[in-house]
Write a structure and sequence with these properties.
This protein is mostly beta strands. Helices cover 0% and strands 48% of the residues.
Length: 110
């Protein structure tokens, strides 16, 4: 497989917009509501988090981060922290075994 999938979820109470290389991948991402998985080419991207509704080309992002997606990677990006200073962590999901109901995923942070 020569693609990666990325899904986002936020645990910040204020909705935020998320951009990858200038393309919006989440609009008004709400607390606890995951996005659908989106497929990307495996490479390094710049991720930007903005207050909902602001222009990505003219507004300073609340946060900017470089992320790398690899071949066959299934990843979940978690937004956390405060609405004015969001943080982002990328987790790789092991999809090699089926242990739960369809559409569900478990993340373990160690």
């Amino acid at each position: 497989n020569t693609s990666a999938t990325l899904r986002l979820i936020s645990v910040i109470k204020t909705p935020l917009d998320v951009y990858l290389e200038g393309a919006q991948i989440a609009s008004a991402l709400a607390y606890g509501a995951p996005t659908d998985p989106v497929t990307f080419a495996p490479k390094t991207y710049t991720l930007r988090i903005l207050t909902t509704g602001l222009n990505v080309t003219t507004t300073q992002p609340l946060a900017t981060q470089t992320i790398t997606l690899t071949n066959s990677q299934a990843a979940i990006g978690v937004l956390y922290g405060s609405p004015d200073k969001p943080l982002f962590t990328l987790f790789t999901v092991d999809i090699s075994t089926k242990t739960g109901a369809a559409g569900l995923c478990r993340i373990s942070a160690r």
